[in-house]
Amino acid sequence: MTPKRSASTLAALALFTGTYFGPAVAAEQNPTGQQITRAGEQASMTGPADYFTGRVRVDPLTSVTADLNTSAVYVTFEPSARSAWHTHPAGQYLVVTAGVGRTQEWGKAVQELRPGDVLWCPPGVKHWHGAAPLTAMTHMAITGTKNGNNVSWMEKVSDEQYPAK
User: Fold this and answer.
1) Phi, psi dihedral angles at 37 (to 5 degrees)
2) Residue 81: what are its φ and ψ, rounded to 5°?
């Protein structure tokens, strides 16, 4: 495994565990000049069953560096797949790139997401996101990190909370 792939895989793993791997990853991902990571150089991974319902694929893009305290991944949810309830201590942007998705903030109505939609989830807001019942959805997640943490996972979204209509 190359250092870039290793750091990117660690960044994707950090999305699921709520931690990042600090200075070792930052030094590896913090060159003095421009750096290009070529498409296909980074391994995709399956979204862990502890944090997702249904089939989810994660494609790492960037990791936290000493200069930029955010990471980015593409996440593809197969129809009806979704994240568990969670919060982000530094907030998160989702940019929908394909398909039809859903999101819900705790205590509020489910909202539909379509390509080109940009969702900002403020720090500490309990929410979930995923695909519509009959259509897959891909989004780019750009997630901030605070005190070494970028997500706090909670309970899974029940079938009653995820309306299949």
Assistant:
1) -100, 115
2) -75, 150
Nearest one of 143, 134, 123 to 101, comparing CA atoms: 134
**Structural domains in the chain, sorted by start:** 3-31+38-153 (2.60.120.10)
CA distance 23 to 34: 19
**pTM value surpassing 0.70:** yes
pLDDT > 90 fraction of the chain, expressed in percent and rounded: 68
| Cα–Cα distance for residue pair 86/76, rounded to 1 Å | 18
pLDDT of residue 65: 87
For 163, other C-beta atoms within 10 Å of its C-beta total 11
Under 8 Å CB-to-CB from 13, ≥6 apart: which residues?
45
Q: Are 140 and 95 contacting, i.e. CB atoms less than 8 angstroms apart?
A: yes
The answer to whether residues 123 and 91 touch, using CB atoms and an 8 Å cutoff, is yes
The Cα–Cα gap between 62 and 64 comes to 7
- Residue pLDDT, tens place only, 51-62: 999 999 999 999
Per-residue pLDDT band at 13 (split at 50, 70, 90): low
Contact between 43 and 13 (Cβ < 8 Å): no
CB atoms within 10 A of CB 58: 23
